[in-house]
Write a structure and sequence with these properties.
The protein is of the alpha+beta class and 192 residues long. The protein has helices at residues 15-108, 114-134, and strands at residues 137-140, 152-158, 168-173, 175-178, 181-184, 186-191. The protein has a domain at 137-192: Head domain of nucleotide exchange factor GrpE (Nucleotide Exchange Factor Grpe, Chain A, domain 2), CATH 2.30.22.10. The chain is 60% helix and 16% strand. The radius of gyration is 48 Å and the shape is elongated.
Length: 192
């Protein structure tokens, strides 16, 4: 009886089964280690790819910023040059008017030439108006119009029985517009 209980049941505690279990455990451990190693490599590859993409986007952003800065500088330079050309063109256009004014003043030195002086000054005024109109500047005289603070600057008010209140009754200085935009409002006297 004492020998029978010592006999091992099939599959329990035999050295062959322990070796198989040990191999299976080592194989599971190796597989888990290999899978973990592969996962780490995939993660590192993804991280490397993300870093490359980040670097590409950073480089693109830096290039775009530099391009925009160059564009801004170029536009500022072109705008300044265009403004200078515009001023030069305006000056060229006004020079004949200045010449006529000088002629009118020379004619005015002769006391008997009062009529010539008035005629010369009128020529200068007409030439200036002509040059300004050529540049798109138009003058306006708002007598009889309802007062509009966008177009008129009221210098004073005056009682006028023939006109309703708030109407322009006198223009002290004409107003000027460029392409519909007011350059200078007309300076006016408004009825009370």
């Amino acid at each position: 009886m004492s020998e029978e209980p010592q006999t091992e049941r099939a599959g329990e505690g035999s050295p062959a089964n322990d070796d198989e279990e040990q191999e299976r455990l080592e194989t599971d451990t190796e597989r888990e280690g290999r899978e973990a190693s592969e996962q780490v490599e995939r993660d590192l590859d993804e991280l490397g790819e993300a870093k490359r993409e980040r670097d590409e986007y950073l480089e693109l952003a830096q290039r775009t910023k530099a391009d925009f800065e160059n564009y801004r500088k170029r536009v500022a330079k072109e705008t300044a040059a265009a403004l200078a050309r515009g001023k030069a063109d305006l000056a060229r256009e006004l020079l004949p008017a200045i010449d006529n004014l000088e002629r009118a003043l020379q004619a005015g030195e002769d006391a008997s030439a009062h009529e010539s002086l008035v005629k010369g000054v009128a020529m200068v005024r007409d030439e200036l108006h002509s040059r300004l109109e050529g540049a798109g500047v138009e003058s306006f005289d708002p007598i009889g119009e309802k007062f509009d603070p966008q177009l008129h600057e009221a210098l004073s008010t005056k009682a006028d029985e023939d006109t309703e209140s708030g109407v322009v009754i006198e223009t002290v200085e004409r107003g000027y517009r460029l392409n519909g935009q007011v350059l200078r409002p007309a300076r006016v006297v408004v009825s009370q």
